[in-house]
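ok trying this again, last paste got cut off
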Amino acid sequence: MSRILIVDDEADARELLALTLTKAGHEAVEASALEPALRLVKELEPLDLVVADLRLGADDGLELCRRVAEARPDVPVIVMTGYGSIEAAVGALRASAYDFLVKPLDPTALLAGVRRALQHRALTDEVRRLRHEVGGLDVGDDFGIVGRSPAMRRVFELIDRVGPGDTTVLISGESGTGKELVARALHARSGRTGRCVAVNCAAMPSNLLESELFGHVRGAFTDARTDRDGLFVEASGGTLFLDEIGELGLDMQPKLLRALQERVVRPIGASRERTFDTRLVAATNRDLEQEVERGTFREDLFYRVNVVNIALPPLRKRGHDVLLLARFFLTRAAERTGREVGDLDDAAAERLLEHDWPGNVRELQNCIERAVALARFDRITVDDLPEKVRRARSSNVALDARHPSEMPTLATLERRYVHQVLEVVEGNKTAAAKVLGVDRRTLYRMLERWEQAEA
């Protein structure tokens, strides 16, 4: 329930507004003039929104807007008037009003405007909270893995649990989610004194990858002018990170499987095998179980590398982690380039939250570095963001569409709402089912259906 102050010099208008807002679940407080309204603005706690008439008898509603902005800048103001004109609207917005509604008010339009203003207020509060939190983050301990969402807390828990050991780990997730950062965090917690060596399996053909991993002896092939240890041996005592392991060709897969089973490698052209003591961490942006079903990835190799799976969530499912990461990247980019850019304004933060981030954390990092380079002020504004981010529309359950083509389907709304409830209850499916009014089995079936549709 939100507390809303109604300011109107007409008693009937105030009563009608109060009735409409109360029926919608809000608490309505009334004032008839400027000074009583200002006293309530200072005294009421909490106060979430002010809805005020532009003409308050001898008083001016625009003056109320200005005074509220000074006393309570966190509280949005919606201005109402029976004199709908461009001049009145511009005047209200210049006086720091959040929105402008024309009388006579349609209840649906009023509640839509109230909903938007309250969402804006909630976002502003969240931005302030995250600004405070990110200042206390010790990101060095997590190698730049920044996050507070339930999904990322589960990732951190797994890193802490399986890091100290030699267990083989498969990190799965979309491109740009930070899989190599997780691999290096696992290595750091392992206590191993050797290096963490990374190789991208998609970056070279099988014959070169075999030489890279297992090594070769002089004369084994045309360019083999000297003996060379492979990465399994070079990383002995440490960790070998095989990125994009799902791209391995079928000819390389049995060779890798034997190396992992026997803990030995035979360099190309050599007659003797060499032992190694290397922990394997692999990563993929593919669904390896589906690749096994298709016959493009060996089942026995899959079980060998997938001893423990750490699934990294896409950025679009990490909620307000977007702002934590944005602040982290902003600080690093500003320090590196010497730019005096220290913050995001609220409108820019809102766009970042509304964008779907198909390129995940990597796309966000690129966006923020670009914005820091282009920023004309001491904070990033909407104009500094890439066009596709500026055009972002909210995936929130609430509707703010103004054309039929922008209206989501009922199925889309259902899906958004379920995920929003899960985020609010921090992933607790029992609590989510209770909020949704369904049993847990129904909720599980819904989530399974959507996961299958994404695959």
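PB: full thing came through this time. The domain at 3-132 is CATH 3.40.50.2300 (Rossmann fold).
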